[in-house]
Every structure is written in structure tokens, then in C-alpha cells.
Design a protein that fits this description.
This protein has 221 residues and is α+β, with helices and mostly antiparallel strands. The protein has 5 helices and 6 strands. Among the domains are: 74 residues, no CATH class; 71 residues, Head domain of nucleotide exchange factor GrpE (Nucleotide Exchange Factor Grpe, Chain A, domain 2, Roll). It has a 3-stranded antiparallel sheet with strand order 1-4-5. A hairpin with a 2-residue loop joins strand 4 and strand 5. Helix 3 runs antiparallel to helix 4. The longest helix is centred in the middle third of the chain and has 60 residues.
Amino acid sequence: MSTNELGDLLQGSGMSDLDDDIEIIEVVGVDDDEPTGAPVPRAEAEPVDEGEVVLAFDEEPAPAATADSQAAEERLDRLRAEFDNYRKRVERDRADYQRNAVASFAERILPVLDNFERALCSPSKDEADGFRDGVRLIYRQLLDELGREGLEPIDCVGTPFDPARHEAISTDTSGENPPNIVLEEFQRGYMLQGTLLRPAKVRVTVDPAVAAREGVKDEGA
């Protein structure tokens, strides 16, 4: 509505006497065809503190990630320990197998060594017998090869009697020698890799007083 039209309307309604009191304010720059109310700007969204959002996002997953890492590290430690135990067990089993295999072979070969020793101890008509020398050489080579596998003869004659390595099958109570000394070896004993393979069968001296008290008879040859 224009200003002139508004004045005519006021005059027609009998309110012309109020012309002096009413001041018509003309709004300049406003299109009559457009709504008089100015558009209300849409309220802007409350600014978000991005730092807090990032901080919350970074802190929340941290405990779970740490727990997962610790669990994974514990599993890895267990796997390492299990593998180390497995490796040691395999090495121990392999060593036991090799030792048992060598022991089984050595036990079968001991009678052969005994026969070599009997042949070499038998009297010879000819001290310069070349055949005996050859047998002695073969016997020595065989002992050397078995020694590479840990086979060692047990020292006997002249040594103190050791029940862990010697088997007394004969005694001497004459008192001519100190007691508890090995006088004679009947069958050689052997150690294999520090373990007794076969005890040596020996003749051992016994104190005459002890022999009389305990009823031990002289079993000398």
C-alpha cells in the first residue's frame, strides 16, 4: 500500500483530525510487493571444538589397543618359550637316540674285542710272528674307531676297587698286598660317553682280619 492510499483511507474513516499527530514514515528501499519482514537468518550451528573431538577419538581406542598389544606380546612370549622347549627336547631326543644306537652297537662288538684280547694273550711260539702283529694292529684300529664314539676301557690292575666300575668275582686274603686293590682283570670293562657300559670282572684284595671276621675265603687262582 502506497502513502497516498494510506492518507485517503484515514480521511475516509474520519480520522483526518489526527493527521497532525500521525507521522507517516515512508520506508525507502522496500519493495511493496515483497514481504515487509526481513528474513531472519538461520541460526548458525554452535561451533564444535575440534580439538575435543579429536582428543576423545584418540583416547577412547587407546586402552583396547594397549590391551591387545599386551595380549599379543604374551602370546608371542609363550610361543617363543614353547618353541625353545621343543627345540631342546628334539636335541635331547636326538642325542639319546644316537647314544643308545652307539651303546647297542658297542655291546654287540664287545665280544669281538674280547676275542681279540684272548688271541693276543695266547702264547706264541714265535715272538716275531707277523700275523700276531697284524692282529694287534687291527685290534688297535678298532679300539681307536670306537673311541671316537666315546668308548673307553676301564683301568683295573693296580687301582683301588670301585664297585661302580668293577665287579669282584675273586678275592685275595693273603695280606701280601694292600686291601681293596685290583690284582687281576678277567674281563675288561668299558665306559661309553661317561656311562658304564660293562663293569670289569676282577680279583680284589681283602684285609685278612676283615676276611676272617666276615668269613670271606681266599678265591685266588
